[in-house]
Every structure is written in C-alpha cells, then in structure tokens.
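Feature request, filed as a ticket because there's no other form

It would be nice if the structure record came with a short human-readable summary line next to the tokens. Right now we just get the raw output. Example of a typical job, pasted below so the devs can see what we mean:
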Amino acid sequence: MILELSGDFPVSLLCEKMGIQRSSFYNWKHTLSHPAERTKALLSNLALFEEYHLRYPSHGYRWLNAKIRLDTGAVMSDPYAHKYCKMLGVKSGAKLYKYKKPGNPFKIYPNLLMTEMQIDRPLQCIVSDMTAFYVKGVYYELTLYMDLWNNEILAHALSSRRGDRMTYLSGLDDLTGLKKQYPRYETILHSDQGAAYASKSFNELLPMYSITRS
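Raw output as currently delivered:
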C-alpha cells in the first residue's frame, strides 16, 4: 500500500501513519526488486508446476514431478513437489474409481468334482483355466484344457492380447473337434466362474457335444 501511495505522499508520512520504520520499508522494497536466489527458485518451480498442471490436469504431483525432471532436468523431491502443488491449489483431475458390485454370471453350475467322482476313462472330466506370462517382454495369455484321467493337455489357445476371450472359444473348438470322434462319451467340463466360462456364447456350444458343465 505504501508503495502505491509513495508517488502522491512522502514516504516518511506514510510510514508514520502505518506505524513502521522507513528503513523497514526500504529494505522490503529492495528485497522485492532483488529477490534472493531461494525465492527465485521457488517462483520458478511454482511456474513450472502450474504450466505442467495446465498441460496434464489429470495427473498428481508425483507424476508431474517426474515429467518435469524428464523434460527439464530439474530435480525436486516429492515432498517439495507436493508443497508447490499445495501452494498453487493444484489437485489431480483424475476420476476416482467407484466400486461396483459385480453382476451375476450367466448361470452358476454345480461343482461336480465335489461328488468324489471316480475318473476311469479318457474324456470323462476335462478341466480348464487361463494363465498369463511374459516372454522377452511380450505379454501372453494361455488357455488350457486338460484331461484329468491322465493330465494330458487336449487343447490350448494362446494370445498376446490382454483379456482376449477368443482364446477360451478357440480352445473349446479344438476340444469339441476331438469330442466329435467320441460322440458316445459323456464329458464333464470343469472351470472357475470367470466371465468367459460363464458367458452365454461359451456354454451354448456344450450340450451339442454331450458336455456337462461343472
């Protein structure tokens, strides 16, 4: 306020009315026009975080700090990055995940393996599951169909697409192709209640091949 009025009134009069020393006013004025290196660094970092927040509004202070370090080489700790964002009122604009109760599966089948069935021939009980792994940095999903009579892998399907449901159906096609050779064999197919195994498209194929779900 004194700085604004100093062009119209004597500084000594303004300082007297404000109850401060003239030396304090001039010291403040000098600091304002010649900020310390620490103050310059603070203002520079604040400007950086404000700029990057405008460019990437959905990201939090840790990501912004990492991106600034990558782009500019400026090294700041995460606590300081949090401090700068708090001073600017910066908050991540990302939407928070809201838990949703999972829907009901297409159909729940009884666990026939719990009946302590005796497996004494091929194709009597087939089990299926999926596993995921990396080979040389490439992600793969493998679906297997195994005969519990001798632990033989009867069919399999491989995909490098995450969540690819076609691996289940492709493996099932190979299994039903084998089942055509033994149409009189009654077969149980046991799996977990994953979305693909519980889907309508998967289970509608089975009755035509005398395959019972478990």
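Something like this underneath would help us a lot:
The mean pLDDT is 79.
DSSP finds eight helices and five strands in the chain.
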